[in-house]
């Protein structure tokens, strides 16, 4: 296997994340271990890194890459299970929690992973192969308006209705089983110059729906704030506006001291401020990084500290 994945915003992530070399850190998106390696390099033997990935291939690859490192624990769990993982490790709080959302270059490039629309593969799009619903089942059995809402809600696709209608017409003749077949159907409706972007949005929307990506992100963020030590950092890399909005709004909510309506004379909400945002504007990859890693182009880093 060539280059499996180039870690994005690597130095920036570590600079925001690590505050204590002997601290306990969590990497929710282990992937091919790019960020985890750098976290390990940045902590000493008293420190600990717990890393997880829901994708079995990524987990297996990283398990052999890291072997049985003393100060690293590896899991093949969804990051939304951070509380369960922490219980298993008897960890009460972390000094830093990190996630680099989405999928890796390897998942995108490897036809067997079924995430690419450029090569023929079964329509699958599950990161966790124990999930029951596949992309093929969604495309071939969901009602037209359900499919159209998925494209619109999770892909922000303006032609969602037109594309869903054509899919439903085509599947009556033959079930749509492969990534390339779905791409071919969409290509009949969209001008060549918009095709790649449309296909990216459609595949992204199916992936988000099947893997419940926005729901698990919300759970992960809620539980992460509970699990941060005072002064501990949370650092999240996002790649599209839907996930970025969730991170931004969660950080903003946790920064508020009070959520009472403005006309209340006294505060009765009992809310406390738990985070201070460290990145008023998101951090973007430098031009130097963008020139060597195209996949970094949509990345945004947001970081906050637990009060
Ligand atoms: C962008 S890649 C991470 C790459 C990693 N930082 C590196 O440098 O190698 C995202 C990874 O997160 C995993 N992932 C996505 N959502 C997840 C979730 N909810 N729980 C655990 N892993 C997840 C994907 O399977 C993928 O391997």
Q: TL;DR?
A:
With 307 residues, the chain is of the alpha/beta class. It contains 13 helices and seven strands. The chain starts with 9 loop residues before the first helix and ends with a strand.
Give the beta-strand count: 7
The pLDDT mean sits at 95
Query: How are strands sequenced across the largest beta sheet?
Result: 3-2-1-4-5-7-6
**Number of spatially distinct domains:** 2
How do the helices and strands follow one another from N- to C-terminus?
HEHEHEHEHHHHHHHEHEHE
Distance between the termini: 43 Å
Task: Tell me roughly what share of residues is in helical segments.
Answer: 40-55%
Number of helices: 13
Described by strand count, sense and barrel closure, the largest sheet is:
7 strands, mixed
Hey, roughly how much beta strand do the residues contain? 5-15%
Features:
307 residues, alpha/beta, Rossmann fold, DNA polymerase, domain 1, 2 domains, globular, binds S-adenosylmethionine
Description:
This protein is of the alpha/beta class and 307 residues long. It folds into two domains: 10-106 and 213-306, Vaccinia Virus protein VP39 (Rossmann fold, 3-Layer(aba) Sandwich), CATH 3.40.50.150; 132-210, Putative methyltransferase TM0872, insert domain (DNA polymerase, domain 1, Orthogonal Bundle). Helices cover 45% and strands 13% of the residues. It has helices spanning 10-17, 34-42, 56-66, 82-88, 105-109, 135-141, 144-155, 160-173, 179-187, 192-210, 213-227, 241-255, 287-292; strands spanning 24-27, 48-52, 72-75, 94-100, 228-238, 275-277, 300-306. Strands 3-2-1-4-5-7-6 form a seven-stranded mixed sheet, with helices on both faces. Helix 7 (144-155) packs across helix 8 and helix 7 (144-155) packs across helix 10 (192-210). The chain is globular and about 60 Å long. The structure holds S-adenosylmethionine. S-adenosylmethionine binds next to helix 2. S-adenosylmethionine binds at residues 5, 7, 28-29, 31-35, 52-55, 58, 78-80, 100, 102-104, 127, 216.
């Amino acid at each position: 296997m060539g280059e499996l994945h180039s870690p994005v915003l690597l130095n920036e992530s570590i600079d925001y994340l690590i505050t204590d070399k002997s601290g306990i850190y969590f990497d929710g998106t282990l992937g091919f271990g790019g960020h985890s390696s750098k976290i390990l390099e940045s902590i000493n033997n008293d420190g600990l890194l717990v890393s997880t990935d829901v994708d079995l291939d990524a987990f297996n690859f990283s398990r052999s890459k890291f072997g049985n490192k003393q100060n690293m624990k590896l899991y093949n769990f969804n990051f939304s299970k951070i509380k369960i993982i922490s219980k298993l490790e008897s960890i009460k709080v972390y000094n830093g929690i990190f996630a680099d959302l989405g999928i890796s270059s390897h998942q995108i490039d490897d036809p067997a992973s079924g995430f690419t629309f450029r090569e023929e593969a079964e329509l699958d799009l599950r990161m966790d192969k124990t999930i029951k619903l596949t992309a093929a089942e969604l495309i071939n059995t969901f009602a037209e308006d359900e499919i159209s809402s998925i494209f619109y809600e999770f892909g922000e696709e303006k032609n969602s209705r037109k594309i869903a209608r054509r899919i439903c017409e085509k599947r009556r003749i033959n079930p749509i089983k492969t990534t390339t077949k779905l791409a071919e159907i969409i290509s009949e409706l969209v001008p060549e110059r918009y095709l790649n972007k449309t296909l990216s949005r459609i595949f992204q929307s199916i992936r988000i729906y099947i893997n419940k990506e926005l729901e698990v992100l919300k759970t992960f963020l809620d539980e992460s704030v509970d699990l941060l030590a005072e002064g501990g950092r949370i650092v999240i890399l996002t790649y599209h506006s839907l996930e970025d909005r969730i991170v931004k709004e969660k950080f903003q909510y946790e920064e508020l001291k009070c959520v009472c309506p403005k006309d209340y004379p006294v505060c009765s909400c009992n809310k406390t401020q738990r985070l201070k945002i460290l990145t008023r504007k998101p951090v973007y990859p430098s031009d130097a990084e963008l020139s060597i890693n195209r996949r970094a182009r949509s990345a945004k880093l947001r970081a906050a500290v637990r009060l």
